[in-house]
Here is the input.
Amino acid sequence: MAGRMRAAPRDWGQASRVVAQAYFPHELRPVGGAHEPRLTLRTLDLGPVLIGHVGWGADVAIECDYPSAYEVNMPITGHLESRGRFGDLTSVVGQGTVFRADTPSLISHWDATCTVLGVKFDSDWLEVETERILGTDRVNARALLPEQLSLEHGRGRAWHHLITSLATNLHDPDLFADSELVRRQLAGAVAAGLLEMCSPDGGVTAAAQPRTIRRVVEALHDDPARAWTAADMAALAGTSVRRLQEGFQRWVGSPPSQYLLDIRLQRAHADLQTNPALSVADVAAAWGFSSASRFAAAHRRRYGTAPSAVLRHGGRTI
Here is the structure.
């Protein structure tokens, strides 16, 4: 029911097959020049839910269609870069990236220091749980789940603690192996926590992301360098600042100001990696940061290193 590797894989093909058996078939590509993987893989099988620790020990990129299952990957260390519906997305400790069932997805950079706490949900089972818990057949998991989860506050923090507590059993593979009832009850708790986190009304009927929120999201991606204010965003959405903040927290998982900061950091970080001739001040100004020092502080919080260090090392995050 739960598992761990019998022996460390000696090559990339073997490492890929081991992870595919536990999670999903995928296309794996080492991107950092590592000659061999240093794979970490431990899983706890709760039936329709699988919890595990996964790390490659090297920089890799992964393409996957996530057949018949949703996946939530939460970095324990390092960062995870992927390509979402609204552009590039980076998750670090305190965040989780959501990958949708039967949807081609790209993890463009799973960094060498990154180990994730991953939760896999059978998609048919999760849709049934969504209808049962939310009490309606008009909402589904695909519409409800955002691309990224915030796990540092409120229900997100509580759900993350639940998963972390279950993950402590990854070192005891036989703990729940002989009790289908316990495994199903635990799987149900994991699903309920996720669905309530993504439905702030606590089970009241949810709907697809409103057009007003989507309009602001698209505008922020189109022009992140603009000197946006909360009032500007609210005016674009045709609502009050408070309503906009509530809507973003519900449908996007973070306040609009944090969402905008994330976009700016992603674009700026890409510039640092691809154009080392630029200065930190140039990059900060190009993406709407009020000063190079504020940009540097935000970059260090997100990526764990100063932007100047990325430039010095030829575009490689260290």
